[in-house]
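Let's study my pick:
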Amino acid sequence: MNNKAKYLLMGNAESPHLIKWARELAKHVDLYVLSFQETDKAIYQLIEKEKCYSFHQKINTAGGNFHLLKLLPKVKRIIKEIKPDFINAHYITSYGFLAALVKPGYSKLILSAWGSDILVTPFESNLKKKITQYALKKSFLVTSDSNFMSEKIRVLSPKAHILTFPFGLEKMPECSIENKNPTLFFSNRALTPNYRIELVLELFSEICTTMPESRLIIANEGSEKEKLMKIAAELGISNNIEWVGFINAERQAEIYKKATYFFSVPISDATSVSLLEAMAYGCVPIVSDIPANHEWIKHLENGIFIQNNTNIIEYLKNTNHSHVFDLNRKIIKERAIFSENILGFIKSLFVIV
């Protein structure tokens, strides 16, 4: 388009996920970014600094960020200055709600659900449910990354207009099955209760009884790290585990390339970008039996579901690594390349308008 639509992206501009959205959107719209937190320098490489608005606030991910309400007059002035055709707020129960409060009549509100803002937060209290429903009611369109989450959105707001597509990868990575280490396992989910890293340790301990040379790399941080390291010691597998904390994308890619297996066993989740990344690198996913994972994994076909009384050793023996490598890369190439999904989103957006 010659006259690109003005598009205000609202969300945590330090998040890799939001940066990924910004990178693709900047190709198609006249992009502005507003963040209550800081703005990553990667954003400044995409758009002029004058189009970025940061409030440098501390955000409590557990909620209770009522101090942000004081900033709404400033946000309203910025919106009046930009006059965006679209306001796209990421994470419905925070940015989405605040955007709904200040949205002018000439701007269409797009809400992007990330997971817990739909699957968990609205059901923690009646107030949080009403906040979510208010934002959804004010929206022109809602994006969701899984059919399961889309169904939950419809429960909260039956009239919501929803587009479903995964966050996905920016491009297919290069990798070879010859570089895979058959005894290397990888976990990069947060070390918090929802992601059940304790279960990962228990499963890995069982694996080590028959494959004592196995290694597990655990990335990320979280409130349970100290507890989890003690559990690993009690299980006698500390020497088989490497705790690497937060790692950058390059280091993570190196591990994906070498790892044969990938753990992701949360209690609740939408489509996990980490799962899609692992599949793109041809890993064998070992995942929890939750609805969103069924949209990507077929048990013993291209991954392993952890259920009650799962015999993980038997499942590993019955896995055809070469078949899984090829199939998972094919699935991601066909369904989860983000640039193609965003292009489809933009086309749908203007058709709807």
Remarks:
- The chain has a mean pLDDT of 93.
